[in-house]
Amino acid sequence: MAEPTTAPAAITLIEAITQALAYEMRNDPAVVVLGEDVGVNGGVFRATAGLQQTFGSLRVLDTPLDETTIAGLTVGMASQGMKPVAEAQFDGFMYPMVDFIVCHAARMRYRTRGRLTCPMVLRVPWGGGIRAPEHHSEANESIFTNVPGLRVVMPSSPARAYGLLLAAIREPDPVIFFEPKRIYRQYKEVVLDDGEALPLDVCYVLRDGSDLTLVTWGAQVKETLEAADALAKDGISAEVIDVATLKPLDFATIAESVAKTGRCVIVHEAAKTAGFGAEIAARLAEESMFDLVAPVERVTGYDTHIPLFRLEMKFLPSVDKIVAAAKRAMALS
Amino acid sequence: MTIAAHFDIEYLQYLDPDGKLVADLPKGFDPKSLLPLFKQMLYVRVFDTKAIALQRTGKLGTYAASLGHEATHVGIGASMRPEDVFAPSYREYGAQFMRGVRPREVLMYWGGDERGNDFEGPKNDYPWCVPISTQCLMAAGAALAFKLRKEPRIAVSCCGDGGSSKADFYAAVNSAGAYKLPLVLCVINNGWAISVPRSAQTGAETLAQKGLAGGLHCLQVDGNDLIAVLEAMRRAGERARNGEGGSVIEFMTYRLHDHTTADDARRYRGEDEVKAGWTREPMLRLRSFLTAKKLWDEAQEKAWLEECGKQVDVEINAYLESKVQPVEAMFDFLYADPPPDLLAQRAAAIALEKRNG
Q1: Tens of pLDDT, residue by residue, chain A (333 residues)
Q2: Is B324 on the interface with A (CB under 8 A)?
Q3: Contact list, B339 vs chain A (CB under 8 Å)
């Protein structure tokens, strides 16, 4: 008689984070989780829910309320053979950590010629659009993409959150792992808890298209896919790429797409000037200029601070803004 | 009046500046054990003098001298076990030599070469740390790793009087208390943070008492008295190893040299102060003490200094003869698995070198 089988339940992005943390804590005794409220409380977003109960307080550590402390302890543990996964409770609270990330984590291997290394992950609930208080809604990824020695990752689906977080924890170098909190619970999908990591240097083509390439990451994947749907209704075929790992950038996938479409619209939430879109646009100018039939467009946050939540949705990229940019690109041929 | 809490800071001194005992020696202390450490202090001073000369003749980059700190540095190094971890700031050569860091590595580092941080000896010790006191918090992280893995190891970190003002230092104190870490924080109070005197750093009477706020064991010691340094470190190390938690020890010493070779202390401190510093320096009193105990004499010192000179010259020559790293060294060791774009830049840099011969 066949065993009754239960199909694995579909899970949200945040549940996929928890699932990956639990998997790797079972798999590798060197993995520890630390941060503010990550223990008994299971994290303010519930990313570490149940972990302390399962793995004990020597594996899941509530820290004193100080981001400098979290970063310093994390670098210290990582450089002495542990694999700490630290949580910065919110993007806007991570600035005190920058000294440790830039001066120590990112260059531990470099400045000791490989004698000491820093295999750590800093998980950062990232971005706006959740009607949060001030300093809870920052899109600050480009501060870190400019730092040599780091890897900067941002998943946009439950499956990629699971696979990329496993890869980040197994990575021998420091990873800044931005989690788009606006889509933490946007939708569910089945994510097998098989311990399979995804590559940390690959962009994902989420939708094939032939007329233009939409490049984005994080929470904007949602609006960008919706924009592609809207464009399809007007007979415009948009390819959608989720960058997923910003550093190192898999530019080949973007270049290949643009070679096919000749047009590129980059969508990101961060402010425009020196945002990571500028890097992609510069690479296109350097390496894909003769493939382009229209100027590269960027749909980004404004060069302002993200406003408090009465205005924040007007700051963020929207389907309308993306469609408008795509149509401007399509008007040229 | 109800007192919520009451604190004292013990001050530890055995040898006064003249080398006279002002307190009974710690129980079981053998003065003979000071001899190899005194020799090590002399070695450090010879090294320091020669390193400064190398900088002055253009053969070394900016160098942070340790002149005057020898008793504190050597005492700290002597108190540690090989498996412990040391997180220095950037002038504790005496401690590092005791742990197996090679003088040529010090010279490599200040001579502009990352290989100086690749210690052949203490593989888990941290490299020199320029950002100020971040090493204290990394050491706390190391101590936390030891505690979580239940290893009988401790972490020792040093910062200066200025360094004790930094948030990172306070964070190390606080986390050491919160997690009861096997951590010894050494505040080496040499009176000056470049041009800013100790008096301008804080309103606290002692720097040792900063540890009280975190629930740590605190002690102020005469950092020019090797016996006091050893006893303070023994107590702190024992506490850490017994699971009794962390310590802050303030070592009172004096920076006899400029902050670094790029500094000119005459701009901000008087000659009288420096002269007075030379009367309290650590070598004088230890030499007097050991001589009085018939453990040391002038002839021995002369012969040993000659030997130190020879040994240091071997190190200097090894440094001077070392080849500059190839240009690709800039790319190597950045990532375990370097991304293709970085490898392309590496190849371009190599090609440029070849073209330029």
Answers
A1: 556 567 788 999 999 999 999 999 999 999 999 999 999 999 999 999 999 999 999 999 999 999 999 999 999 999 999 999 999 999 999 999 999 999 999 999 999 999 999 999 999 999 999 999 999 999 999 999 999 999 999 999 999 999 999 999 999 999 999 999 999 999 999 999 999 999 999 999 999 999 999 999 999 999 999 999 999 999 999 999 999 999 999 999 999 999 999 999 999 999 999 999 999 999 999 999 999 999 999 999 999 999 999 999 999 999 999 999 999 999 986
A2: no
A3: 201, 248
Please tell me whether the peptide bond between A248 and the residue prior to it is cis, using omega within 30 degrees of 0. Answer: yes
CB atoms < 10 A from the CB of A263, how many? 27
Cβ pairs bridging A and B (under 8 Å): 125
Backbone dihedral region of A307: left (phi > 0), alpha (psi from -120 to 50 degrees) or beta? beta
Task: State the catalytic residue, choosing from B73, B255, B280, B346.
Answer: B255
To test the contact with chain A by mutation, choose from B89, B109, B118, B138 the residue with the greatest count of A C-beta atoms within 10 A, namely B138
Q: Report ipTM (2 d.p.).
A: 0.96
Q: Cβ of A72 and B168 within 8 Å? A: yes
Six token digits for residue A77: 């543990």
Contact between A128 and A312 (Cβ < 8 Å): yes
Residues B77 and B85: their CA atoms lie apart, in Å, by 11
Map chain A to HEC letters.
CCCCCCCCCEECHHHHHHHHHHHHHHHCCCEEEEECCCCCCCCCCCCCCCHHHHHCCCCEEECCCCHHHHHHHHHHHHCCCCEEEEECCCHHHCHHHHHHHHHHHCCHHHHCCCCCCCCCEEEEEECCCCCCCCCCCCCCHHHHHCCCCCEEECCCCHHHHHHHHHHHHHCCCCEEEEEEHHHCCCCCEECCCCCCCCCCCCCEEEECCCCEEEEECCCHHHHHHHHHHHHHHCCCCEEEEECCEEECCCHHHHHHHHHHHCCEEEEEEEECCCCHHHHHHHHHHHHCHHHCCCCCEEEEECCCCCCCCCCHHHHCCCHHHHHHHHHHHHHCC
Between helix B298-321 and helix B34-56 the angle, nearest 10°, is 50
Alpha-carbon span A248 to B338, nearest angstrom = 9
Catalytic center residues of A = 136
Which among B254, B249, B208, B248 is positioned nearest to B71, based on CA atoms?
B254
Q: Catalytic one among B73, B259, B287, B346?
A: B259
Of B56, B266, B268, B335, which residue is the catalytic one? B268
